[in-house]
Design a protein that fits this description.
Polyprenyl_synt, Farnesyl Diphosphate Synthase, prenyltransferase activity, single chain, magnesium, 74% helix, Isoprenoid_synthase_dom_sf
C-alpha cells in the first residue's frame, strides 16, 4: 500500500472513531438526533481526500528523519507520532464536509457526490415521517445546523491533535493557520454569492479580476495552500519552508478551482456526481464565464447573461450555453491558465528546501488535481 493510501485509511479510521465518540453525546440528548450522526457519516465516507493529502505531505516535507534529504523515502520516521497529523488531516476533511453542506444550501443543489445533498436528505426525512409544515424549509434549516455541527466537530478534532504535539509554538501556529483558513473561505463564499448578483454593476474590465479573487479565497487557499501550511506548521517548519509551500500552494489551488469550474459546466455527471451544466443553473460567475463574455458578440452575450442562473434551464438550453462558451475560446484560455498555474507551482519545488521524497509526491498530487476529470 502506498503512503498516501495508508494516510487516507488512517484519516477515515480517525473520522469514524471521532464520530463513534460523539454519537452517544448526541443520542443522550434525544434519539430524534440520530439523523445528524447518520448523515455526518454519509458525508464523511469516501471522497478524494485532497485536503488531507496536502496536509500530510506538507508535514512530511519538513519532518526531520533519517534519510539523506532529512526524510526517509519509505515513510515517516518510526519514532514520530502520527496522531497529531492524522487528526489535523481528518479535521480538515470534516471542515470540508461542513463547507459542502452549507454550499449546497446556498446553491440549492440536489446532489453531492452522486447522492442527495444534506438539505434534500432532511426534506426526504420530513416527507417520509409526514411531519407538519413544509419539507423544504425543514430541510434547509436542518442542513444549516448539520453544517454548524460539523464545523464545531472539526475544531474539536483539530484541538485533540494539537494537544498531542510536544511543541506548543507549533500547535499555536497551526491553530492560527486553521483559523485564518476559516475566515478566508467564509469571505470567499460571500464574494461568490455577491458576484452572482452584483456583476451587472461592476465594470466590464474588472469582472475577470473579481472572478479570480473569488476562486482564490473561496477555494484555492483552503483546498491546497492552507492544508499544506497547517501540516508543515505541525512539524515545526521554518519560515522559508512555509513560504515555499505557500508559493507552491496558491497557484496550484487556482489551477484546482479552474479545473473545477470547467467540470461544473462540461463535466460528465457520472464522474462528477453533479448534473451536467450545474454551474450554469446556479449562475456561477466564474473565470470561465468572464473570459467567454470578453469574446462574445452582443446577441450571444445577452443570451448567456439572460439564462445564466436560471434553475429551470432545459437540457437544450444547457447545451446551447455550453456551445456559446466553448465557441468563445474561453475553454482553451482556461486550459492555458491551468497549465500556467501548474507550471508556476511546480517550479517553486525546484528550489525549495523541502524533502525530495515529499516533493515527488507533491508533484504527482499537483498533476492529479489540475488534470482530474471529476
Amino acid at each position: 500500500m502506498s503512503e498516501s493510501n495508508h494516510l487516507i485509511d488512517l484519516v477515515q479510521s480517525r473520522i469514524d472513531e471521532f464520530l463513534f465518540t460523539r454519537a452517544p453525546i448526541v443520542s443522550l440528548i434525544s434519539s430524534d438526533l440520530t439523523p445528524l450522526v447518520a448523515f455526518s457519516r454519509q458525508f464523511l465516507s469516501g471522497g478524494k481526500r485532497f485536503r488531507a493529502l496536502f496536509c500530510y505531505w506538507g508535514w512530511r516535507s519538513v519532518t526531520p528523519g533519517g534519510g539523506s534529504d532529512g526524510v526517509p523515502t519509505a515513510g515517516p520516521p518510526h519514532d514520530v507520532d502520527l496522531a497529531p497529523i492524522v487528526s489535523a488531516a481528518a479535521a480538515l476533511e470534516i471542515f470540508h464536509a461542513a463547507a459542502l453542506v452549507h454550499d449546497d444550501i446556498i446553491d440549492n443543489s440536489d446532489t453531492r457526490r452522486g447522492a442527495a445533498s444534506a438539505h434534500r436528505l432532511f426534506e426526504n426525512l420530513h416527507r417520509s415521517e409526514n411531519w407538519a409544515g413544509g419539507p423544504v424549509e425543514f430541510g434547509r434549516a436542518s442542513a444549516i445546523l448539520l453544517g454548524d455541527l460539523l464545523l464545531g466537530w472539526s475544531d474539536e478534532l483539530l484541538d485533540e491533535g494539537l494537544a498531542g504535539l510536544r511543541d506548543p509554538s507549533a500547535a499555536r501556529f497551526a491553530r492560527r493557520e486553521f483559523n485564518l483558513m476559516r475566515t478566508e473561505v467564509t469571505a470567499g463564499q460571500y464574494l461568490d454569492i455577491l458576484e452572482e448578483r452584483a456583476w451587472r454593476t461592476s465594470r466590464e474590465d474588472e469582472l475577470l479580476e473579481r472572478a479570480m479573487r473569488v476562486i482564490e479565497f473561496k477555494s484555492a487557499r483552503y483546498s491546497v495552500l492552507a492544508p499544506l501550511v497547517i501540516g508543515a506548521a505541525l512539524a515545526g517548519g521554518t519560515p522559508e519552508q512555509l513560504e515555499s509551500l505557500r508559493r507552491f500552494g496558491l497557484p496550484l489551488g487556482l489551477a484546482y478551482q479552474l479545473r473545477d469550474d470547467l467540470l461544473g459546466v462540461f463535466g460528465d455527471s457520472s464522474l462528477t456526481g453533479k448534473p451536467s451544466g450545474d454551474d450554469l443553473r446556479e449562475g456561477k460567475r466564474t473565470v470561465l464565464v468572464a473570459l467567454a463574455r470578453e469574446n462574445l458578440d452582443g446577441g450571444s452575450r445577452r443570451f448567456l447573461d439572460d439564462n445564466l442562473g436560471d434553475p429551470n434551464l432545459t437540457a437544450h438550453q444547457i447545451e446551447k450555453l455550453q456551445g456559446i462558451i466553448a465557441g468563445s475560446g474561453a475553454v482553451d484560455r482556461v486550459e492555458a491558465l491551468i497549465t500556467h498555474q501548474l507550471a508556476e507551482a511546480t517550479a517553486v519545488l525546484d528550489a525549495a528546501l523541502l524533502a525530495d521524497s515529499a516533493m515527488s509526491e507533491l508533484r504527482m498530487l499537483a498533476e492529479k488535481v489540475a488534470r482530474r476529470a471529476f
